[in-house]
Amino acid sequence: MFRRKTEQIRLLRLEVELANQRSGHWQKANGRLNDYIDGLEAELDIAVQEYTELEGKYTALIAEREATQAAEPPF
Q1: What is the torsional sign of CA 28, 30, 33, 39?
Q2: Mean pLDDT of the chain
Q3: Distance of alpha carbon 10 from alpha carbon 72, whole angstroms
Q4: Superkingdom, according to UniProt (predicted)?
Q5: What are the distances in angstroms from CA 42 to CA 3, 37, 47, 63?
Q6: Which pTM value belongs to this model?
Q7: CA end-to-end span of the chain
């Protein structure tokens, strides 16, 4: 009877150890994915900032062109 209980305890300890190892693996993978996501978000922030700056320059150029065309006679 005690041998059976001892074997069950040993098997349960092995299961707990395996679960802890798997958990550690997934925690590491999760950390790497979070780092990757943070990097992508940073790149996206830079791209949005650059786009906004270019959009502002484009709008200013269009306004300048329209002002120049309005000041010139049509002929």
Answers
A1: negative
A2: 92
A3: 93
A4: Bacteria
A5: 58, 9, 9, 32
A6: 0.63
A7: 109
